Every structure is written in structure tokens, then in C-alpha cells.
Description:
By secondary structure, this protein is of the alpha/beta class. It folds into two domains: 81-395, Aldolase class I (TIM Barrel, Alpha-Beta Barrel), CATH 3.20.20.70; 405-466, no CATH class. 46% of the residues lie in helices and 9% in strands. The chain contains 19 helices and eleven strands. The protein has helices at residues 21-30, 35-46, 53-61, 65-83, 122-135, 152-164, 184-192, 207-213, 222-226, 228-234, 251-269, 297-310, 324-331, 372-381, 391-395, 400-406, 410-429, 433-447, 452-466, and strands at residues 86-96, 139-144, 166-167, 170-171, 174-178, 198-199, 240-243, 275-277, 315-318, 337-339, 385-387. The strands form two sheets. It has an eight-stranded parallel beta barrel with strand order 1-2-5-6-7-8-9-10, surrounded by five helices. Strands 3-4 form a two-stranded antiparallel ribbon. β3 (166-167) and β4 form a beta hairpin. Bound molecules: S-adenosylmethionine and iron/sulfur cluster (SF4). The site of iron/sulfur cluster has 9 residues, from loops.
Amino acid sequence: MKFTPEKYNISDEPMKPFIDPAEIETYLQNEKPDKSRVREIIAKSLAKNRLTLAETAALLNADEPDMIEEIKQGARELKQQIYGNRIVLFAPLYIGSKCSNNCSYCGFRVSNKETVRVTLGDQEIINEIEALEDNGQKRLILVYGEHKDYSPEYIAHTVKVAYSVKKGNGEIRRVNINAAPMEIEGFMVVKEAGIGTYQIFQETYHPEAYKMYHIGGKKSDYNYRLTSLDRAMEAGIDDVGIGALFGLYDWKYEIMALVRHTNHLEACYNVGPHTISFPRIKDANNLKLGDKYFVSDEDFARLIAILRLAVPYTGMILTAREPVALRNELLQFGVSQIDGGTKLELGSYASVEEIPQDLRREQFRINDSRSLGEIVEELLEQDMLPSFCTSCYRMGRTGEHFMEFSVPGFIKRFCTPNAILTLAEYLTDYAKPEIAEKGWAVIRKNMESLEPKMEEELKERLERIKSGERDLYF
Length: 474
Ligand code: SAM
Ligand code: SF4
């Protein structure tokens, strides 16, 4: 199947703002679906089609408990049928907490004098990366506040430092970044450093609400942020991640806007976002936000299921902001990536001592503090296949989620074998014996589902891993 994105918004122009709150609200007001329409829409998604804004609005307005259950069931089915049981693991690494913006939900905001500001020096970055590699991490996202010290050149430098650190069999094979928007020239500089995904969240897509939370600083310019991924695309970065911070405005509006943003990128650049993130606001140092738009666990599960159906070929990221039990439940709706062993305190991966509470300097508090080893073990117990794969990015296969979704046999030819190879490396180098045993059992089971020729080839590569070779991929 060839990628021919539907041009839902042919009037969209590159580099021009594209969110019209009235358009979104009209869809939300007009689409009142009955059961048969909800079922039709779910079936359309299961038949591998992205949903329109009208269809997404219909799912969002399906409020009756049995319809909500059908939507969740649809998302579970889509995950089972298309993506199987792989989960990609990564870790965030905060590089600097200086910030000249004043986002009212964030511990790093400039007016928050209680936060201790830290920027890691090269040696500290190396220490952090070595500690992450010692745990078995292969994929990172580097995170920065918005500050004149964190120029594109500085960000590119830190990315290069991250790639350069090798300890034992450890190495970082993919560095994504979450950083303030740049000009096209700046994006070219960070692209050149070899970043994987450039990720940025609009926080809220509602311009009026946005204004209230972002008073002062560069980030107060809604449209500059909204068009940042257009500039990234113009600079040749075609691997981008979008997101909204849930709890700032009506969650139904934000889901519509995330789909609209996806449309825009597809219409203008022929490629949608690689990933969508949906963080919920968590407690932060000195945070005083109202709870008018608080998103309950039930609604959170519902919004993730709707998003899965609306953009079936986009990766979805769920972070350690959420507690363990909820994370495990939400994985079933087609989340494709999670972070593991996460620490947000700057410098804390390498630090042996707990940082005292009164000196807390992280951006917000997380709710899942399991180590990477514990997460791998739990995933294995649930028959999932933890993966550290970075193959598509390194083979130049962009649009991998779309390929997984649409190219027949892609998962069996590439994703499952690569997940197995990277898990085998992890089990050999970093896992406790009892976890390794569980892991090899999961590997054997997953190999049975592959073509005999692939199974043979994998067996041969697994032997090579056992005898010390690393970084084998398809
Ligand atoms: N300074 C860059 C920016 O604003 O784009 C980097 C982003 S920030 C370090 C990463 C993301 O964390 C933000 O985009 C926001 O969505 C999220 N965030 C901020 N405060 C949060 C909170 N209290 N709870 C959960 N997520 C939060
Ligand atoms: Fe700064 Fe980003 Fe926090 Fe806003 S969300 S205060 S820009 S670090």
C-alpha cells in the first residue's frame, strides 16, 4: 500500500496557523452519534483508515457507558490486530532547567524562585549517560527549558555528547529532543547533530486558554509555537512528535486539535507526526492551578482509546507521570512507547544520594518510579515484548509507524525480529538471571510466530549475540 494521505484540509498552507476553535467547536456541537454510527466509525478505523474530524467528534460525543466500552474494545482490537505485543522503552534526560518562560503549570517557570536551576556540564552529561547505559537504556529524549543558554548549537552539542558515550556494551542509539521552538536555521543545526524525533507540545490548542497560562516570555506567542513543526519540516526534520497537556482546557477540544494538527502536517508535508503524547498535569514545585479541566482516570482512558482509533498509524507515548496500575491498563489501548527507570531531578541518574525534598528541582512529580529492570520484568510477565529497537531510524526508514500499519508483513519482517534482538542484548548484558529466564521464554514464544526462514536467521543472530556481537538489526 502506498502512502497517499487524504487531504482533509487542502486549503492548509505550510507555515500558516491552522487551528480554528470555531471549526472544532462546531464539529463537537453537531456530531451526536447513535450506536450504529459509533460502530461504523470503529469499523472504519479497524479497516485501517484514519478518521475525519467529524468522525472523531462523534466518538468524543459518545457518552453512554456501553458506547464508551465499545470504543475501548475497538482500540484494544486495533492494537492486537495491528501492533501485537511490542512496547518500545526509552528514558528522558533533563539537560537544563533554566527557563525564561512563565508557564503557570511548570516547576521551571521563571517566576518560581524556589526551583534550584541546573544545567548539566559535559562531564555531568557523560556521567548521566553512563548511568543510563549501565541500566540498559538505548533510546533517550533530552529535555531543556527555554533559555538563551540553550541555543540550537548548544542543543546539538549535547546531542553529540550523548551519542559519543560508550560504556561496556552500552551506547545510546537514538537521541530525541524536547526543546523550545526554533527558526528553520536552528532546526537545521539540531538535525545535523543526528536527532531522532523533535518533540514539542502545544500544551493547549485553545488560543484564549493558552494566553492565560503563558504570560510573558517567548512561549506566550501561540502561533509561533503552533507552526514550529512546519519550520522543523522545512528544515528537513520529518520525524516530529506532537502533544497536548491535559488539564489546561476541555479534553475533547484538545483531541480534536491533535487530529487537526495531524491533518495539517499530512496536507502540507505528506507525513503526519511520528508520535502523539498526552501528558496529564501533575503536581509541581509550588504549583497552584485550579482543577476546572481536571481529567479523571476514566476520561483519560477514553481519550487515549479515541485517539488510537482516530490516528491508527501514529505512535503513542505514555510517560511515568501516570501510576503503575493505570499505565498497565492503558497499554492495552495501543500505547507504543513508555519511559522506564525515569528520574526527573537533574543529575539524578548518576547521583547515589537522594536529593533532599527542600532542594527539589524537577519539573513535576512522577508517579511511576520503577526501575527499567522492574518494568521489563512486568512487561514480560504480561507477555509483552519490550523493545529497544532503533533500526528504522538508522536504516533511513522514516514513517515507520505508518509502515508497520500499512505494509503487509512489516512487523514480522522487521519489528518483531528487531525487538527480539534488542531484548536479547538487554537480557545478556543487564538483566538479573530470573528476569533473563523469563525474557528468553518470551523470545522463544515470539519466534514461533515468524516465518521459518526468519526464525532460522534470528537463531543464528541470537547465537552471535551470545558470543559477544552487538547491534545486529534488520
Ligand atoms: N521548555 C520546553 C517547552 O516548554 O517546550 C520543554 C518542555 S517541558 C521541559 C516538557 C513538557 O512537560 C511540557 O511541554 C509540558 O507539556 C510538560 N509539563 C510541564 N509542566 C508539567 C506538569 N506540572 N505536569 C505534567 N507535565 C508538565
Ligand atoms: Fe519553561 Fe517549558 Fe516549563 Fe514552560 S514548560 S516554564 S517553557 S520548561
